[in-house]
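quick one, 205 residues, struct below
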Amino acid sequence: MELSNLTELGSTSLKEKLSDFGITKAFKEGEVILNENAYIKAIPIVTKGSIRVLRTDEDGREILLYYIKAGESCIMSFLGGMHQDTSKIKAVAEEETEILFIPIDKVSLLIKDYPEWLDYIFRLYHKRFEELLDVVNAIAFKKLDERLLDFIRKKSTLANSNTLTITHEQLANELGTARVVVSRLLKKMEEEGLVKLGRNKITLA
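---
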């Protein structure tokens, strides 16, 4: 696995060691990579594509926590894996994605031998903590129409396109609300000139 273009991972020697230890797997768009309550046996590093990380309630409703992009990993997997705990999140491929899985038993060796690996983990922890704070703030203080527009813009930036192919049902699931509510808000946004709606498509104005 070629990691030279992933500057987030630090030195060349660390990247080489990660390649030696890791196992690469490919996932199709929408494929579940990790389910809640599953035991974590390896730490994922995204080398291509992106992952959306979700939390699910007892009724099956989901809410988006954050995205993991190329060069990044999931801090929840680090913590769960190191403490032999089960996953508290669900991870799904946002697009065609390749992941390098580092076995849990190799993680402590990397921390001991490569200080930049520990720095990488701390930087990820800081970033994910800020993203989770944004989620809490949005739910607590923002109206749903603001959250919906912010979500569409974030997803658009990730896809590098002003047009998203997504259903109202998918949007509702990721925001933890009802489809009929999302449809009503999108129609209002279209009337205000913020978006243009098509069949399973949303284009930012």
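The chain has two domains: 9-140, 143-204.
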